[in-house]
Amino acid sequence: MSKALFSARAGLRGTGRGKYFRAYWPLGQLQLSAETLALSLLIARWEIPVHHVRAIQRKLFSLEITHSAKETPNHIRVWGLGLYSRLARVIEEHQLDIEVR
Predict the structure, then answer these.
(1) 52 — phi, psi (to 5°)?
(2) E strand or H helix that includes residue 87
(3) What are the DSSP calls for 20-46, one per residue?
(4) Can you tell me the distance from the alpha carbon of 92 to that of 89, in angstroms, rounded to the nearest whole number?
(5) What is the rounded CA–CA span in Å between residue 26 and residue 80?
(6) In DSSP terms, which residues pair with 100 in a beta bridge?
(7) pLDDT for 59-68, tens place per residue?
(8) Which of 17, 30, 66, 75 lies at a C-alpha separation of 20 to 30 Å from 100?
(9) Is pTM, for the whole model, over 0.85?
(10) SS3 breakdown of the chain: % helix, strand, coil, rounded to 5?
(11) Ramachandran quadrant class, 20 (left: phi over 0; alpha: psi -120 to 50; beta: rest)
């Protein structure tokens, strides 16, 4: 993985495609580089290529990641203080091809 543009501790939950994971803050981590969006837990790590990430959408107390990567659970929720606004700012600054809703 190349140099991280954004990294933050976060709560993570993913379901779908026969997989399930959940990590409460501070045991989960979200990292964004120019090539991948990585979700790290103590025992597992999923990397989604940025070209597979369609959108990041704000929810009430979390954000939802919409993607088309086949090896990663398809319903991903991430939560953390100010996470959405910080992540949206980095995506805009580095002109990544990810829709921010």
Answers:
(1) -95, -15
(2) helix 83-93
(3) EEEEEEEEEEEEEESSEEEEE-SS-EE
(4) 5
(5) 9
(6) 56
(7) 988 999 999 9
(8) 17
(9) yes
(10) 15, 55, 30
(11) beta
